[in-house]
Amino acid sequence: MLEELREEVCEGNLELARNGLVAWTGGNLSALDPEKGVIVIKPSGMLYSQMTPKDMVIVDLEGKVVEGEHGPSSDTSSHLAIYRGRPDVRSVVHTHSTYATAFAAIGEPIPCVLTAIADEFGGAIPCGGYAAIGSDAIGKEILVNIGDSPAILMKQHGVFTLGTSIKKALQAAVMVEDVAKTVAIAQQLGTLEELPEEEIAANHDRYMNRYGTMNASLGVSAE
């Protein structure tokens, strides 16, 4: 069942490891098949180095395992709450990536002090309140606090990113760790200055609506 999506979800999870966003068996990625009303998600407690597409677990939107040789991720209820509350979302990523999770540890958002943050996230990366693992409480807290951002920190827990595709959810996960590292270093060097709201809006609009088409219009090779 869902062989192609299982392969994509497995590869997406392996990308988390390749990008240094997860350690040991932590973290997870899922994707939704809206027509069948199920998600494919990483199995619980499995090493990334041992993971194959057949290990991915298929779960319906009520949390019942439809197919799989292993138990689903312990964060499955969080993922399901997000899918139920955000019809636009097709993939969810959860990591404990080091620098972004450091902000989560102190319950602080990542301020919008870089154009890269404005580009990708449209403002400060929010931090939701603490919620217990194992129920839909984390997912509900994410829905309340994430706004239009593709990423959110969860206090004393870690990072969640959402996307209209696996690629977009992965992109947000990679980028949130990248900017978190830069901001954490910058905090040691001096006082941070947040970008003005108009600059945040202008940069985000350019990135979302024109970035990637500008080279073509200028006659510049994408290579």
Q: For the terminal residues, how far apart are their CA atoms?
A: 38 Å
What Rg, in angstroms, do the CA atoms define? 18 Å
Major beta sheet, specifics?
A: 8 strands, mixed
Q: How much of the polypeptide forms β-strand, as a percent range?
A: 15-25%
Please list the strands of the largest sheet in the order they lie side by side.
4-3-2-1-5-8-7-6
- Spans of at least 5 consecutive residues whose pLDDT stays below 50 are 215-223
Number of helices: 8
Helix content: 40-55%
Shape: globular
The SSE order reads: HEEEEHEHHEHEEHHH
Overall pLDDT confidence: 95
- The structural class is alpha+beta
> How many beta-strand segments?
8
Describe this entry's structure for a reader.
The chain has 223 residues and is an alpha+beta fold. The chain has helices at 3-18, 76-85, 98-105, 115-121, 137-145, 166-189, 197-209, 214-217, and strands spanning 28-33, 38-41, 57-60, 65-67, 91-95, 127-128, 151-154, 158-163. Strands 4-3-2-1-5-8-7-6 form an eight-stranded mixed sheet, sandwiched between helices. α5 links the parallel β6 and β7 (151-154). The longest helix has 24 residues, at 166-189. The chain is globular, with a radius of gyration of 18 Å. The chain starts with a helix and ends in a 6-residue tail after the last helix. Mean pLDDT is 95; it is low at 215-223.
